[in-house]
C-alpha cells in the first residue's frame, strides 16, 4: 500500500514588503538581502492573522466534504503556537468543520514539527487505510525591527493531506534522521522573539544534512543521480544551496545541472514569502511541483528537513501519475498576484500592532483582511475567529 501526500494547500498574508525597500530604509546594500540571502519579498501578517488562521486558510483551499469526513487525525506543527496548553489543531478542527471523531494535537521541534507529523501520519494510515490525516505547518517568523534577523522574517502556512493511494507524492519507507542537543536557535517561554547563533546554525544545518544524507545512501544504495530534485528546509533561500553544493561536485554534469536548476525553481515561493519555519520545506516542495513542468511520473524527490536544537531528517517520495492535475497552482498564483506591496513605514506600523497580554478585550477589524478566516479578537483571555 502506498501512503503519501494527496493534496497540498498554501496561504500567506496579503501584505508584503520588498526587500530592496527594506534594505534602503535600513541603510544596507540590497544585495545582502536579494543575493546574499536570496530573498526578494517578505510576507507581513496583519494582526488579524495568526498561525491558527493561516493554517485554516491553507487547509480550506484543499479540503472537500469527503476529506473532512475521512480526517480522523489533525497534527499541527508550529513553533509559534498561540496557547501553552490548548493545541492550535483543535482551533483549526472547529473552524474547518472536521469530523468530531478525531484526534487533534500540536507538535513542536522548531522547523521539524511538520515532518514529524508526516511520519506519524504514515503509521496511522498504515493501520487505518480508509482514513486521512491533516498536517498543518504554520508559523510567523518574528525577530523584531532593526534586528539582525529581521530580513529572514516571514509568515505563512502549508496544509498537507496524507492518505493511502496519494495523488501527488508517494512517500518511501526509508528515511534517515539524527538528533543532537545543541543551542543554535531557541525561544524561551518568556520571550516573544527567538535567540539565534546564525553562523553556528548554518554550520549545523549543513552538518546534519551530511549525517542524514550519508546514512540514506548507505541504507538505500542511491546517489544524487537518482533524484530529479531535492527540496530543502529554507530559513532563507541560499541556505539549502550551501548544503547541496557540498555534495554535488562529484556528480556527472548533467545531474548537477538538473539538481541546480530544480533547486532554484523550488525556492521561488520562499523568495516571495520569507521564512515560515515548519512550512518552509513543504513550501519549497510546492514551489517545485507547481513551477517545474519537466517533472514526470515516478521521478524521485528528496526532502531535507531541519529543526534547530536540533533534529534533521532526509526522506524521499515518488511523483504519482497525473500529479499536476491535483495541484492548486492557479489559486496560489492568484494569491501572489493579489498581494499588496506596502512601504517600510506601513510594515513597521503593522509589526507593532499586538494583542493584549493582560487579559483586556480587543476586537479586531477583519473587513480589510481578504482572507476567508481571520482572528476576530480576544476577550476574557480567549481568542475568537471569524469565517466569512
Shape: globular
CATH topology of the largest domain: Peroxisomal Thiolase, Chain A, domain 1
Q: Number of DSSP strands?
A: 18
Task: Provide the β-strand percentage band.
Answer: 25-35%
What is the average of the pLDDT values? 97
Indicate the CATH architecture of the largest domain. Answer: 3-Layer(aba) Sandwich
Structural category is alpha+beta
Family: Belongs to the thiolase-like superfamily. HMG-CoA synthase family.
Protein name: Hydroxymethylglutaryl-CoA synthase
Keywords: Acyltransferase, Transferase
InterPro entries: HMG_CoA_synt_C_dom (IPR013746), HMG_CoA_synth_N (IPR013528), HMG_CoA_synthase_prok (IPR011554), Thiolase-like (IPR016039)
Describe this structure in a few short sentences.
The chain is α+β, with helices and mostly antiparallel strands and 388 residues long. Helix content is 35%, strand content 26%. Strands 1, 4, 5, 6, 7, 8, 9, 12, 13 and 14 form a ten-stranded mixed beta sheet that branches.
Give an overview in words.
This protein has 388 residues and is α+β, with helices and mostly antiparallel strands. It folds into 2 domains: 3-167 and 327-387, Thiolase/Chalcone synthase (Peroxisomal Thiolase, Chain A, domain 1, 3-Layer(aba) Sandwich); 171-322, Thiolase/Chalcone synthase (Peroxisomal Thiolase, Chain A, domain 1), CATH 3.40.47.10. Helices cover 35% and strands 26% of the residues. The chain is built from 13 helices and 18 strands. The chain has helices at 19-26, 30-37, 51-60, 65-70, 88-96, 113-127, 198-220, 237-244, 253-266, 268-273, 280-291, 329-337, 344-351; strands at 3-11, 15-18, 41-44, 71-77, 103-107, 132-141, 154-164, 169-171, 176-179, 185-186, 195-196, 229-232, 300-307, 311-319, 340-341, 362-363, 373-379, 382-387. Strands 1, 4, 5, 6, 7, 8, 9, 12, 13 and 14 form a 10-stranded mixed β-sheet that branches. A 3-stranded mixed β-sheet has the order 3-2-15. Helix 1 packs across helix 2, helix 3 (51-60) packs parallel to helix 5 and helix 9 crosses helix 11. It is globular and about 60 Å long. The two termini are 39 Å apart. 47% of the residues are buried. Belongs to the thiolase-like superfamily. HMG-CoA synthase family. It is an enzyme of class 2 (transferase). Its EC number is 2.3.3.10.
